[in-house]
Amino acid sequence: MEHFNRFYLWGxxxxxxxxxxxxxxxxxKGLVGVLMGCWTxxxxxxxxxxxxxxxxxxxxxxxxxxGRERPEEGGWKRAVLWVALANLSPDKRGLTQYGQSYHLxxxxxxxxxxxxxxxxxxxxxxxxxFEEAGHV
Length: 136
Description:
Blueprint: H1 2-35, H2 43-63, H3 75-88, E1 93-95, E2 101-116, E3 119-130
Antiparallel strand pairs: 1-2, 2-3
C-alpha cells in the first residue's frame, strides 16, 4: 500500500506541474497564433505540447523531489545543475530554485573530481559563490 501511496502522490504532483506548463504553453501558442492571424491550434500540436509538458514535469520531479528542502544525499545533482546553468549564461551567474543568486568562478586550469554513488565526475576546478543581498 505504501508503494501505491507514493506513486499516487507522485502522479498528483506531476499532473499539477504538467497542467501549469500546459496552460502556459497553450496561452503562448494561442497568443502567437492570434498575432500571426491564425485562430486555431491543431490537435497534433496540442498532443505534442502535452507530451513535452509531461516530460518537463517528470524531469522537474526527478531533479527537485517534493518535500525535500535540503537533501542529505544527492545534493550533487543540484550543484551540477547550478554549475551547468551558470556555465550557459554569458556572465556565469544563475539563481537557485530558492531564488538565491550565485556566480561561477574558475580557480585555475586544473580539474577536480566529484565522487558520487554512481561514479566519478571530472570537471574544471570552479567554485560557486553565493550572494546574499548584494554581499558575497
